[in-house]
């Protein structure tokens, strides 16, 4: 699994990269691997107010439909139309072209509630161990 050290992570398997007052959000490499082939995304429209850890949309794969949760609160400023039209980009480039939305942060202190790369690695290691029991 790829875990990028420059990102912050939620326990729901979303990541955020902050540049200035805007955070780019996507799903982690681990999440896309667990979901399998992604076939559909329902993302919030620009202007939508998001709350930290609140539902922000849905992701559908050949295996299941899952909710997406925002790792940060703020106003959605852009949805990635390329990934809406080609959801498989999440599978092939989860941290690059497969990003989902950009959000103008309402409270930068919320980043302190997210996991570091090391803490996220521990979380998924534990989940993988539980799934093999």
What keywords describe this structure?
133 residues; 4 helices; three-stranded antiparallel sheet; OB fold (Dihydrolipoamide Acetyltransferase, E2P)
Describe the 3D structure.
- With 133 residues, the chain is an alpha+beta fold.
- It has a single domain, classed as RNA polymerase II/Efflux pump adaptor protein, barrel-sandwich hybrid domain (OB fold (Dihydrolipoamide Acetyltransferase, E2P)).
- Helices cover 24% and strands 33% of the residues.
- The protein has 4 helices and 9 strands; from the N terminus they run βββαβββββααβα.
- The strands form 2 sheets. Strands 1-2-3-9-8-5 form a 6-stranded antiparallel beta sheet. It has a 3-stranded antiparallel beta sheet with strand order 4-6-7.
- A hairpin with a 3-residue loop joins strand 6 and strand 7.
- The longest helix is centred in the C-terminal third of the chain and has 16 residues.
- The radius of gyration is 14 Å and the shape is globular.
- The relative contact order is 0.23.
């Amino acid at each position: 699994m790829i875990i990028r050290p420059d990102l912050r992570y939620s326990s729901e398997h979303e990541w955020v990269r902050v540049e200035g007052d805007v955070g780019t959000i996507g799903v982690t490499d681990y999440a896309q691997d667990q979901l399998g082939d992604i076939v559909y995304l329902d993302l919030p429209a620009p202007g939508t107010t998001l709350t930290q850890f609140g539902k922000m949309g849905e992701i559908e794969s050949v295996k299941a439909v899952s909710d997406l949760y925002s790792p940060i609160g703020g106003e959605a400023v852009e949805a990635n139309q390329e990934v809406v039209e080609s959801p498989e980009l999440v599978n092939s480039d989860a941290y690059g072209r497969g990003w989902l939305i950009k959000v103008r942060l309402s409270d930068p202190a919320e980043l302190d509630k997210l996991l570091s790369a090391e803490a996220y690695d521990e979380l998924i290691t534990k989940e993988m161990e539980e799934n093999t029991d």
